[in-house]
Amino acid sequence: MLTTLLAFVVTLGVLIVVHEWGHYRVAKACGVKVLRFSVGFGRVLLRRQRGETEFTLSALPLGGYVRMLDEREGPVSPAERERAFNNRPLWQRAAIVAAGPAANFVLAILLFAAVGLLGVEEPKPVLGSPLAGSLADKAGLRAGDWVRAVSADGEDWQELQSLPQLRWQLTQAVSEGRKLHLSVSDAQGHGQRQLVLATDSLEKRELDAQLLRRIGLGGAFMAPVLGELSPGGAGAEAGLQRGDRVLSVDGQPVVDAAALRERIRASGQGGVEGERVAPMLWRVERAGQVLSLELRPKVVRDGGQLLGRIEAQIGAPPELLTVSHGPLESLWLGARRTWEVSVLTLNTFGRMLTGEASLKNLSGPITIADYAGQSARMGPAQYLSFLALVSVSLAVLNLLPLPMLDGGHLMYYLFEGLSGRPVSEWWQQQLQRAGVLIMLLMMTLALSNDMARLLGLH
Question: Around Cβ 158, how many Cβ atoms within 10 Å?
């Protein structure tokens, strides 16, 4: 809990400070007088005067602001009229407003580049058993397949280094409504062949956390080796031990941990909750010897389904690779990843507006805090990647053409540039009210989604 809270506070602090710092630095460069730089809203908790600017920390840390000298907000002395924001040229006002999102984009590029330099341990793109009847199964993927490269058209191929890279390619393919070509071999690199995943058959509204399961990919290949067993559980009672490698169940070969888990889960269907299923014959390898054991999984209810359980950890850790790059390559990859995430985020917003994507994709502070804590516990590289993703999302969100957001102000300046006159005060007031309503609706929906995820309803 403490790690989650600290990671969330650091995330908010870094992103808010960087965003507002962008506004602040460009305003100063344009000669605008900055009255206050605030992290947070509401009652001021801490304040410090540096030159003509007051730096403050306020009670509500879900944002920040830079207050500039402006004749629309109060009287300005004749000597400082040229330093008022409203009296600066149009291009300078637009640059000051755009500098906040731009700073978040730059931060994301640098964070992604830092991850590339540091290196991160990620699972090798060797796949576990696909779900029966899934897209992956129909495409011909099998347990132990090593995905070497992907292509959008079957001609230009991009090599893969890790499983997360494959997941990202799948997400992009579904987002763009196209197939994904795969070049695969066995785990030792032999027998290379090409397959096509029909990701174009999935609706874009299915672009969520369950995407991989819909495609049929459960995760990295894990050997069917047992870990810790709970004392008194079905596995321990049958005589299974840590390190046993499962060869077959009821005469059917077991190819990987995913297939074994599915076999155990399926054994509970049609059973009675709390009771044991009919005996299953397991053949396991232990210290070079092959043993036959009878095992009766216990039937439990999970999410309205009856499933089998043996109360044992199943699966050896997947093979990990350290993925790292040189300075220039890391910077280029950071810029490319920032662009790809930006396009995907913007497309998702657009699809939510048109009903092509589920509104469940919208997340609030509770989900962000949870992911911040999870990534922080996984290590520095994972947390920096998370921070970069949120920074991109914040930049894209702020560029949406909604009053109250930077994008709304940029739309005002676009109108002024095209028409030669500013948006009237009356129209600004009406649009501001509409913007407040839209933002409240978005915040309510995001918090509702957060609570639904917390309660396991999504």
Answer: 11
Per-residue pLDDT of the chain (458 residues; tens, 9 = 90+): 677 788 888 888 899 999 999 999 999 999 999 999 999 888 999 999 999 999 999 988 878 899 999 988 888 888 889 999 999 999 999 999 999 999 999 999 999 999 989 888 888 888 888 888 888 888 888 888 899 999 988 888 998 888 888 888 888 888 888 899 999 998 788 888 999 998 888 876 555 556 777 788 767 888 899 999 999 888 899 999 999 999 999 999 998 898 898 889 888 888 888 888 888 999 999 998 999 999 999 988 887 788 889 999 998 888 888 888 889 999 999 999 999 889 888 877 777 676 666 656 666 666 666 767 777 777 888 889 889 988 998 999 889 888 888 998 899 889 888 888 888 878 878 877 877 787 777 777 766 765 666 555 54
Structure tokens, 378: 């996984």
Please say whether the beta carbons of 256 and 222 come within 8 A: yes
Q: Which residue has the tokens 């220039």?
A: 328
Catalytic-role residue among 20, 82, 206, 311: 20
Domain boundaries along the sequence of the chain: 226-315
β-partners of residue 48 are: 55
Architecture of the 226-315 domain: Roll (2.30)
Biggest alpha carbon distance in the chain?
Answer: 93
The closest of 185, 252, 261, 251 to 225, measured between CA atoms, is: 261
- Whether 20 is a known active-site residue: answer yes
pTM exceeds 0.85? no
Rounded Cα gap, residues 242 and 224, in angstroms = 11
